[in-house]
Automatic annotation (TrEMBL):
Domain of life from the UniProt record: Eukaryota
Protein name in UniProt: GDSL esterase/lipase
Pfam families cross-referenced by the UniProt entry: Lipase_GDSL
GO molecular function: hydrolase activity, acting on ester bonds
InterPro entries per UniProt: GDSL
Biological process annotations from GO: lipid catabolic process
Keywords annotated in UniProt: Hydrolase, Lipid degradation, Lipid metabolism, Signal
Signal peptide residues on this chain, from the entry's feature table: 1-25
Length: 325
């Protein structure tokens, strides 16, 4: 797999949070001022937000993924928690069940208390060979609405966080979602897959980042246009580019020894999915750092749990403003 294909597998992630009720959400040890208390979280996207949908042949089902949380590999593409886990906690919820887990369970409706995660690793906005793309994930959700697994009442006072593709954004708004947070693209020129060969994990690739910055500029323009076209101005931006950059530059309270160097590093140069691989004798084909908290990145394309915590910390003010007010 070439670098561009790898990048395309992590370019899109988005979250849909359904809210109703009029209570307070709890963040940490204090209450976040709010007129509403969220009851359900719905997640759509790729490996950055997948918590268990990707099939078991994929590398994130193998050790050492999940060693920090929940203690075993369950297809979080990290050593532990990922962004929707932090957002769920911010909203006062537990992380919602993965769609595939719900389909294979006999427990049914009780598992839906906190919503559902539809995200699959390796997906994108457009057609993807091995994973349901964004449109198909929304199809899954819409079918659950038609089947009354979730109801129109669940859509009241709703908030959504999504990567931008105008048709899908309009489609979800048409389902009754009133507030849609559009996730910008992170600075993927800082991924270890690019910074390792070029600078031994010391400098981001600003050539790639310049294109992504231009994408995010167009994204802002798209969101502004969509708001003009709708009466209730439901769309707003969650700036992953700025939050990643802040965390990588150690600008927040969470610091990293070498932010660009991944904790789990393949021994073979160019092996994009080498974390977790072993040879025929069971010998590891990767090197694992002593402390996953020391690096922003877990593998060559995904943040560590501590990395996501730093991103969430940088996003918290925006989340308070748009999700809870």
């Amino acid at each position: 797999m070439d670098t561009q294909k790898l990048l395309s597998s992590v370019l899109c992630c988005f979250l849909l949070s359904m809210l109703s009720g009029r209570q307070q959400a709890v963040q940490g040890n204090h209450h976040v001022p709010s007129n509403i208390r969220p009851l359900k979280l719905f997640v759509f996207g790729d490996s950055y937000v997948d918590t268990g949908n990707t099939n078991k042949t994929q590398f994130a089902w193998k050790y050492p993924y999940g060693i920090t949380f929940p203690g075993k590999a369950v297809v979080r593409f990290s050593d532990g928690r990922v962004l929707p886990d932090y957002i769920a906690k911010f909203l006062g919820l537990e992380s919602p069940i993965p769609y595939e887990g719900w389909k294979s369970s006999s427990c049914g409706i009780p598992l839906l208390k906190y919503g559902m995660n539809f995200a699959y690793g390796g997906t994108g906005v457009f057609d993807t060979a091995f994973s349901p793309n964004m449109t198909v994930q929304i199809d899954f959700f819409e079918q659950l609405l038609k089947d009354n697994v979730f109801t129109a009442k669940d859509l009241e006072s709703s908030v959504m966080n999504a990567s931008a593709e105008s048709i899908n954004l309009k489609r979800i708004h048409g389902l009754g979602v009133k507030k849609i947070a559009v996730t910008g693209i992170a600075p993927f020129g800082c991924l270890p897959v690019l910074t390792g060969p070029a600078s031994s994990f010391r400098q981001c690739n600003e050539y790639y980042n310049s294109f992504l910055g231009f994408h995010n500029l167009l994204l802002n323009q798209t969101v502004e246009k969509l708001n003009v076209e709708t009466e209730d101005c439901p769309f707003f931006i969650i700036d992953l580019y700025a939050s990643f950059t802040s965390a990588i530059k150690n600008e927040g309270s969470i610091k990293f020894e070498n932010p660009l160097k991944p904790c789990c590093l393949p021994n073979v140069s160019g092996d994009y999915f080498g974390c977790g691989k072993v040879d025929e004798n069971g010998a590891k084909l990767y090197t694992l750092c002593e402390n996953p908290k020391s690096g922003f990145f877990w593998d060559i394309s995904h943040p560590s749990q501590e990395g996501w915590r730093a991103v969430y910390s940088a996003l918290q003010a925006t989340l308070e403003q748009y999700f809870l007010h």
